Amino acid sequence: MGRLFSPTEELTILHEDEDFVVIHKPWGLRSAPGRTEGTQDSAELRLRAMIPRAEGPMTVHRLDIETSGLMIFALNPIAQSNLSKQFQFRLVTKKYIALVEHSPMSRQGTIDAPLAKDPDPDRWPRQKICMDTGRASRTVWKIHERPIEKALEHQGQPVRLELMPESGRTHQLRVHLASDPSTGGLGTPILGDTLYGTESRASRLCLHAESLGFWRPHEDQWMAFESLAPF
E-strand spans in 31-123? Predict the structure, then answer.
């Protein structure tokens, strides 16, 4: 049974200038408006209400509705084009934190496994590892040493991982971590994953975009932001 999404916290602006805004997106909030009735509430529409001077397309990248953390939105068409190209050419650095169900066999590694849509329409929007038709997808990971917060109650012994995706496929981190090692995955689902793991283990998907780095549009200045995972 699917989980009902309702943000438990407000969208927070961490940085704003003439070209872009960096926010903390709460769990349960869409990045951009959906196509059907009742799915319009999103980070983008909230930002347009908060920053009326914003013009043109704002979306540069997306986070799953179930993922919290850092996002950047453009405030004018020139900045949107520049930032989108930085993501396209992999000039942006991203780090995610995830709580997974159990410890991997090693302390660090790289998952290099192509991803494709699951062909079964009843399993939409699931993705899967597919060596034949999948698009190249690569995730670098390692065990994160920061102690797990006691505020979240979990069964068993979850482990915190640091994830550095080198591509940006749909559900990439979730599929790479949950998939069986025989297919190229890590074999340890993220806690609270409703599609690829065991939903009952946590009240939310324990995946958070913790750091984000990119070049200020049209300037030789590196910008770096951090928002610590709440778990």
Answer: 68-74, 93-100, 108-112, 115-117
Domain-located, residue 5: no
Which pTM was predicted? 0.91
Q: How many domains does one find in the chain?
A: 1
For residue 137, the domain's CATH number is 3.30.2350.10
Please provide the distance, in angstroms rounded to a whole number, between the alpha carbons at the two ends of the chain: 24
* pLDDT tens digits, one per residue of 37-71: 778 899 999 999 999 999 999 999 999 999 999 99
How many angstroms separate the Cα of 43 from the Cα of each of 8, 11, 201, 221?
A: 14, 7, 27, 26
Residues marked active site are found at: 64
Report pLDDT digits (tens) over 153-167: 444 578 999 999 999
Asked whether residue 4 is domain-assigned, the answer is no
Q: Rounded to whole angstroms, how far apart are CA atoms 38 and 18?
A: 31
At 108, is the secondary structure helix, strand, or coil? strand
Q: Is 42 left (phi over 0), alpha (psi -120 to 50) or beta?
A: beta
Domain region containing 124: 12-226
- Phi/psi region, residue 6 (left: phi>0; alpha: psi -120 to 50; beta: rest), is beta
- Encoding tokens for residue 113? 């496994």
